[in-house]
């Protein structure tokens, strides 16, 4: 896995003042254990937070920094923390780390957990102090077996050093941290489905309200944050809000840095810590190296399989949530995928929708029945057996499964790439209509009949 820096790949060395998430990484990719982590200023932020900041001051510092969730939704972290109850009598609270990284084409949290487990632990320790949470869980994707081994070893090291457990750093504050491996369900990336799974229940999303901050795991106040989000907390506490905000490029409404990547038929697929607001073209050309010889960029997704496709000209957008929204989709996880000119979009979408249909929890009808329906039609179009009206029906499903029309965000994320693919590459879908039926195109169902 490639890790480079702010400038053109491999030309500038990572430094604490510019790369808060990755400056400690070893060139050989080996994990950084406690002794080395502490020599590299590890747990200094935790000591500062415990010695000089009250829980409310930590919450305010994170709120003032503008840190937003790095799991894809981008909700302001400090605002989320502020939703936890102020009532001191509610002394059983939980902090959950969402490490169920199952978004296709996303592997950023895996790198942090495998190579810097103590960075996550320190971030959770400070966050737990701010939230007055006495117990934390790292809900880890079951397939991340190496990360599980490294995290459990790091937890034991921190416990032995008095950085977890009872009376941490002589503060009187207790915090227990548990690594919990999931059973491999994409839907557990939704925080309430994660909570249900942690409790031993079926991984269905819960109705909100009540929100987890009021009624979470085992009915107690709970905060759920992504791995990368929590890993930003130590640097914010150590260096302050002005420094953190200064990391992003001019014009970006998001602050700090982000783990970004590019995969597909690019010359240098990898993962880099980069400032919010850089042009997506810089990420694609200077870091990923552009397309391999013999391939052309057909389109790209900015942040996982649940984001819409964009065209090559959209690479000129600023790579932050608002900049990507201006060209019609979401930044998502920030790990982009290049689709080359040899890929058939119908086959690609059929593969994607099969995944999303399989991972539906089955709770609500539009998602449970609509996604398999899209797979059936895409498979027919892929095999040249489509019927007149199939494309309009697919567009109808994009509408019916859109934001606000299903119980959670699973279905809207599933159909966003489908809608954008038809928008930009409709002739490839039309080519899948069976020749014997091509003459029936005048009988195509009206889009208004299917809600498109």
From TrEMBL:
UniProt key word Translocase: yes
Chain ranges of the NADH-ubiquinone oxidoreductase 51kDa subunit iron-sulphur binding domain: 346-391
Keyword Protease: no
EC number assigned by the record: 7.1.1.-
Any one Pfam family match given in the protein's UniProt record, by short name: Complex1_51K
This protein's UniProt keywords: 4Fe-4S, Flavoprotein, FMN, Iron, Iron-sulfur, Metal-binding, NAD, Oxidoreductase, Quinone, Translocase
Coiled-coil ranges from the UniProt annotation: none
Family matches, as SUPFAM superfamilies: Nqo1 FMN-binding domain-like (SSF142019), Nqo1 middle domain-like (SSF142984), Nqo1C-terminal domain-like (SSF140490)
Catalysis performed (reactions): a quinone + NADH + 5 H(+)(in) = a quinol + NAD(+) + 4 H(+)(out)
Co-factor(s): [4Fe-4S] cluster; FMN
Signal sequence region: none
InterPro entries documented for this protein: NADH-UbQ_OxRdtase_51kDa_CS, NADH-UbQ_OxRdtase_suF, Nuo51_FMN-bd, Nuo51_FMN-bd_sf, Nuop51_4Fe4S-bd, Nuop51_4Fe4S-bd_sf
A GO molecular-function annotation: quinone binding
PROSITE patterns: COMPLEX1_51K_1 (PS00644), COMPLEX1_51K_2 (PS00645)
Function (record text): NDH-1 shuttles electrons from NADH, via FMN and iron-sulfur (Fe-S) centers, to quinones in the respiratory chain.
Family: Belongs to the complex I 51 kDa subunit family.
Subunit architecture: Composed of 13 different subunits. Subunits NuoCD, E, F, and G constitute the peripheral sector of the complex.
Record's protein name: NADH-quinone oxidoreductase subunit F
Taxonomic classification: Bacteria, Pseudomonadati, Pseudomonadota, Gammaproteobacteria, Pseudomonadales
């Amino acid at each position: 896995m490639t890790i480079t820096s702010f400038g053109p790949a491999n030309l500038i060395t990572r430094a604490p003042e510019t790369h808060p998430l990755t400056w400690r990484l070893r060139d050989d990719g080996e994990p950084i254990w406690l002794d080395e982590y502490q020599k590299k200023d590890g747990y200094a932020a935790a000591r500062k937070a415990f010695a000089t900041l009250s829980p409310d001051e930590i919450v305010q510092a994170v709120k003032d920094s503008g840190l937003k969730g790095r799991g894809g939704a981008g909700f302001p972290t400090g605002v989320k923390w502020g939703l936890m109850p102020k009532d001191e009598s509610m002394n059983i609270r939980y902090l959950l780390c969402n490490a169920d990284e199952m978004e296709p084409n996303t592997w950023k949290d895996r790198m942090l957990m495998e190579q810097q487990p103590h960075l996550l632990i320190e971030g959770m320790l400070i966050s737990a102090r701010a939230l007055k949470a006495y117990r934390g869980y790292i809900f880890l994707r079951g397939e991340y077996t190496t990360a599980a081994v490294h995290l459990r070893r790091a937890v034991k090291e921190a416990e032995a050093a008095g950085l977890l457990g009872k009376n941490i750093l002589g503060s009187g504050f207790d915090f227990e941290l548990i690594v919990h491996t999931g059973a491999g369900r994409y839907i557990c990336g939704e925080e309430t489905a994660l909570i249900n799974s942690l409790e031993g229940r079926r991984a269905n999303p819960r109705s909100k309200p009540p929100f987890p901050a009021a009624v979470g795991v085992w009915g107690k106040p709970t905060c759920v944050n992504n791995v990368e989000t929590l890993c930003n907390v130590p640097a914010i506490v150590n260096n302050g809000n002005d420094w953190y905000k200064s990391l992003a490029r001019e014009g970006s409404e998001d602050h700090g840095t982000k783990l970004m990547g590019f995969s597909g038929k690019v010359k240098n697929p990898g993962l880099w810590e980069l400032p919010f607001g850089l042009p997506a073209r810089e990420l694609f050309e200077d870091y990923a190296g552009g397309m391999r010889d013999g391939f052309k960029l057909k389109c790209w997704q900015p942040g996982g399989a649940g984001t819409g496709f964009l065209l090559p000209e959209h690479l000129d957008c600023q790579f932050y949530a608002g900049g990507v929204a201006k060209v019609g989709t979401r930044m998502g996880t920030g790990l982009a995928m290049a689709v080359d000119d040899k890929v058939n979009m119908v086959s690609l979408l059929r593969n994607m929708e099969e995944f999303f249909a399989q991972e539906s929890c089955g709770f609500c009808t539009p998602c449970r029945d609509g996604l398999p329906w899209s797979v059936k039609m895409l498979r027919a179009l892929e095999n040249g057996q489509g019927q007149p009206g199939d494309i309009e029906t697919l567009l109808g499903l994009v509408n019916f499964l859109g934001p606000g029309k299903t119980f959670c965000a699973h279905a809207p994320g599933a159909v966003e790439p489908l809608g954008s693919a038809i928008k930009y590459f409709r002739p490839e879908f039309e080519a899948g209509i069976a020749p014997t039926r091509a003459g029936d195109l005048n009988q195509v169902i009206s889009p208004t009949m299917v809600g498109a």
